[in-house]
Amino acid sequence: MTHTSRIDHYLEDHLDQSISELSRLCEQPSVSAQNWGIEETARMVEKMLKKRGFETQNIPTDGAPVVTGFRAGKSPRTILFYNHYDVQPPEPLELWESPPFQPTLRDGKLFARGVSDDKGHLVSRLFAIDALLAELGELPCNVRFVVEGEEEVGSPNLKPFIEKHAGDLSADACIWEFGGVDHRDVPVQYLGLRGLCYVELSVETANQDVHSGLGGSIFPNAAWRLVWALNTLKSPDEIIHLPGFYDKVRPPSKRDLELFELMPETADEYRGRYGIKQFLKSMTGGVELRVAESMMPTCTICGLTSGYQGPGSKTVLPARASAKVDFRLVPDQTPEEVLEQLRQHLDSHGFQDVQITYLGGEAPARTDPDHPFVKLVVESAAEVYGQPMQMIPMSGGSGPNHLFIETLHVPIVTAGIGHPGSQAHAPNENIRLDLYLKGAKHIARILLLYGQEKV
Amino acid sequence: MTHTSRIDHYLEDHLDQSISELSRLCEQPSVSAQNWGIEETARMVEKMLKKRGFETQNIPTDGAPVVTGFRAGKSPRTILFYNHYDVQPPEPLELWESPPFQPTLRDGKLFARGVSDDKGHLVSRLFAIDALLAELGELPCNVRFVVEGEEEVGSPNLKPFIEKHAGDLSADACIWEFGGVDHRDVPVQYLGLRGLCYVELSVETANQDVHSGLGGSIFPNAAWRLVWALNTLKSPDEIIHLPGFYDKVRPPSKRDLELFELMPETADEYRGRYGIKQFLKSMTGGVELRVAESMMPTCTICGLTSGYQGPGSKTVLPARASAKVDFRLVPDQTPEEVLEQLRQHLDSHGFQDVQITYLGGEAPARTDPDHPFVKLVVESAAEVYGQPMQMIPMSGGSGPNHLFIETLHVPIVTAGIGHPGSQAHAPNENIRLDLYLKGAKHIARILLLYGQEKV
Questions:
Q1: pLDDT level of residue B378 (50, 70, 90 thresholds)
Q2: So what CATH class is B3-191+367-452?
Q3: Residues B173-189: tens digit of each pLDDT
Q4: Does B401 reach chain A within 8 Å, measured CB to CB?
Q5: Do the chains contact at B218 and A326, CB–CB below 8 Å?
Q6: Residues of B in contact with A236 (CB under 8 A)
Q7: What whole-number distance in Å separates Cα of residue B345 and Cα of residue B349?
Q8: Hey, where are the domains in chain A?
Q9: Residue A23 vs residues A116, A119, A130, A146, A403: alpha-carbon distances, Å
Q10: Disruptive mutation site among B32, B212, B419 for chain A (greatest number of A CBs within 10 Å)
Q11: Does the distance separating the beta carbons of B359 and A312 come in below 8 Å?
Q12: How far is CA A71 from CA A52, A129, B233, in A?
C-alpha cells in the first residue's frame, strides 16, 4: 500500500475516536464575547497537542491565552496551522434542536456550538497528524500550531502577540483556521479575507426611562436618536456614507474576475437555504453577486436594543439605546481609518451624543493565487474530493490573516471540513462526518507532499 | 367635631391597616401585557369591594374580567370610580432597589409595581369609603366602581363592555383612576387625556440569522429595513410624516391657554428629575412646553429588538427586527385613522415588508373646565392641601375616558395620591404615605359634598 492509502485507512478506522475527542472539546463552552470557559479550553487544547508530542506553550495575553505547539519533522520546512478555540455566543438558545454544548450526532452530522467554527478544524488536523505519526513514525515536515481564544471578538490581542513572538513563530506556509466545500461538495480555496471594524453605538438621553405620556413630545428619546444616527450611515440603496469610506477600496483585478467567472452559481442555493426573496440592489447572481459578497465593504447592523422588548405593550420612553454594527473591509481599508471616519461622520451629522465603543477589528489581506504552495494545496485535493479546489479570490468573512501575511511573510491557504449548511454563528451549528474525514485526508496529503518537495 | 374632622381622624388612625391592604394587593402580580395574575387579582378586588357592602360582579370579557361594585347612599346621585387592577411589566428588573412584587416601605414611601398606577388609588378610595361608613353609618351618595384589567395595554375590551352595560353603569359624575400633586405638592386637576395608538412594527428578511461575513453585502437585513422604515415616520425636527396626521389636531383654545398660563414652571423639575440636558425643539419651558407635552400628538419608539444584544460582539445579520411604537393622539385624532395612515405611509415609502401589529389604542377626550362638578372637586381640595387644585386642560397620558364621556355622558375629574416622583411605568414605582392620606381625605370630602348638594 502507498503512504496515502495507509493513512486513509488509518483515518477511516479511527474516525469514531477523533469524533469523541472533538465532542469532549465542544462540551467545554469557550465563548469569548462572554468570557466563558476560556482558560479551561486553552488548557484542554494544550493537553491535546502535548499528547501528540508537541512542545507547547500556554501564553498569557491581555485577553485570552494563546496556545502554541511545535513538532519537528523530516523536512526542515514548517507548516503553521492557525486555529482558534473560542466560539460564538450560543444565543438564541430556543432555536437549537439539541443543547449547544451537548454535542449530538444526527443524520451523519455532529451538532454543537463551535463544532465547525473552529473546534472541528483543529481536531481534524490533529487527527491527520495522528495518522501520519502512526503510519510514518514521524511528521513529513515541521508543524507549528497557533491556537488563539479571541477570534470571535476580532482577535484584539493577536497583533501584539504575533509581533512579539514573530521570531519563535517562523514558518514557510500557513493553513488557515477554516476551509471546506461549497454547495456542490467541491472543495474551495479562499485566497483572502475581508477586514472588520466592529462597534457598539450607544445613546443615553436621560437618567431613567420615562412614561411615554409624559415625555413623548418634550424629552429626547434614545431610541429615536439611535435610529436617526444609524439611518445616516447607510441608505436603502446600500451606499455607506462615511467620509472617504470607499477611497481605498481596490476593485477586483483581471485575474480576480477570471477566478470569479470560474465559480459556480450560488444564487439559488442562497435563496433556498436562507429563504431570501431577493438579493440587495436587484442582483440576481453571477460575477456581480460574487464580487459584491466578498470584494465590497459592508455596514451591517448586527443587533438593536432599546426600551421594552417583552410581549404586548409598554408605554415607555427609553433613556438608553444601542446597536451593534460591523463593517467588513476590503484592501486597502483599515479598521482604524473607518473608526475615525465613523466619529467624524456622526459628529458632522449632529450625533455627538452617539457614543462609539470599538469591539474589535482586523485589516483585510490576500494571498497571491499563483503562489506554489497554493498550487500544491489546490491540486492535492483532487485525490480526496475527485477534483482540485475551486479558487476564490476573497472570502466574505474576516480573520487576522493580515498579521501572518505581513509579519510572518507566509502564504495562507484554506483547507478544512466546513460545508455551506454548517450554521456557523447561528443555532444548530454542525459538521458533516464525511467531510470531516475528507478534510483530515487532505491535510495529511498536504503535509506529506510539502515534506517531499525540494526546499 | 365636624363630619370632616371625625373622618380625618379615622383616616389618620387607620393608615397602617389601609397600607397593609394595599401591600397585599401589590404582592399579587397583574401584568396585563404578559397575562400574568389577572384573574387572581380580579377576584381579590371583588372581595375588597364586597367587604365594604358593595354589590359586586366579576364580568368576563374577551380579555381580562371587569369588576364592578355598587352601594347606594343617602343622596340618589351616583359617583362612578374608574380604576384598573392591571399593572405595567416590571422590567428592567435589575434597576429595582427592592423586588417589584414585594412591597417595601422606605423613607415614607411604599415601593412596588402598580402601587401608584393604579392599585394605590383604588385602595385609597376604599379607605375613604371605610371612613365615611364608620363615621356616618352610610355613604353620602351612591357609589359605583368599574375596575378593569387591561388599562396598561390600551383597554381593548372596555369599549364593548361599556356599550353593552351602559344601562347598568349610570352615574352623574366620574372620578378618574389617577390624580395627585405636582412638583410643588399642589394638587392638580387634569381635564382631558390624550389618545393612544400602540403598534409593533416587525420585519422578517430571511428564515434564519446569517453570518454577517456571508450576507452583509448581498442579503437584506431586517434591522436595516426597520431603521429605514422608522426613520421615515418622524424626522429629527420632531415632525411626524404620516399622511394627514395633523389634519384633525385642534389647537388649544383661549381658555386652555389661560389655564396653561396659570400653571407653574416644571422645566427645572424635569431637568433635575430625569437628567434631561435639553428639551426637544429647543423648548425651554413656559406655555410652549405645557402645550407641547399634552396637546400635541407624538410618535414614540418604546422599544427596539433585533439580532445579538449580549455582551461583546457577534457578527450576525439579523433575520428579524421589531419596534414598539406609540402614538399619543389629541382631539379629534382617532387610533383607527392613525393606523390607516401608518399602513399607507409605509407602503408609499416602499416598506410593504414592515408588518404592523395593533396592540391597543384609545381616542382622546376632554371635560369642560367650567362644569360644576369640576368646581366642587377643585375647591374641596383646599381644606386638605391648603389650596384649591390647579387646573390642567389636558394630561399627556392616555386612558379610556372618552368611553365614559361619550357613552355614559359624565364629566370626569382626577383626584388621587400620585406625585411626580412616583416612577409610574418605570423601576422603583412608589407612593408617598403623606399623599396617600391626603388623597383619601379629599375623596371623602368629594363624596360628602356631592351628597349634600341639591340634585
A1: very high
A2: alpha beta
A3: 999 999 999 989 999 99
A4: no
A5: no
A6: 224, 228, 350
A7: 6
A8: 3-191+367-452, 195-249+296-362
A9: 11, 9, 17, 21, 30
A10: B212
A11: yes
A12: 9, 10, 63
Question: Using CB atoms and an 8 Å cut-off, which of residues 420-449 of chain B contact chain A?
Answer: 423-427
Task: Tell me whether residues A228 and B236 touch, CB distance under 8 A.
Answer: yes
pLDDT tens, A219-250? 999 999 999 999 999 999 999 999 999 999 99
* Cross-chain residue pair A198–B315, CB shorter than 8 Å: yes
The total of other beta-carbon atoms located within 10 Å of residue A386's CB is 11
- Look at strands B75-84 and B173-175 and give their pairing: parallel
Q: What is the pLDDT of residue B455?
A: 45
At residue B211, the pLDDT reads: 87
Query: Closest by alpha carbon to A88, among A427, A433, A421?
Result: A427
Q: For residue B349, what is the nearest residue in chain A, using CA coordinates?
A: A236
> Could you give the ipTM of this predicted complex?
0.82
Domains B3-191+367-452 and B196-249+296-361 share a fold: no
Q: Which residues contact A97 (CB under 8 A, 6 or more apart)?
A: A106, A111, A427, A428
Class of the domain covering A195-249+296-362: alpha beta
- A204, exposed or middle or buried, with CB in 10 Å at 0-12, 13-18, 19+? middle
Residues 6 or more apart whose CB falls under 8 angstroms from that of A393 comprise: A191, A192, A252, A255, A256, A259, A260, A294, A295, A366, A369
Q: Could you tell me the three cell numbers for B142? A: 351612591
Chain B residues with CB under 8 Å of A317 CB are 300, 302
Q: Which CATH architecture has domain B196-249+296-361?
A: 2-Layer Sandwich (3.30)
d(CA B9, CA B2): 11
Residues of B in contact with A300 (CB under 8 A): 212, 215-216, 221, 224, 315, 317
CA A271 to chain B, closest CA, distance in angstroms equals 9
Rounded to whole angstroms, the Cα distance separating A439 from A172 reads: 21
Bridge partners of B79, per DSSP, are B143, B173
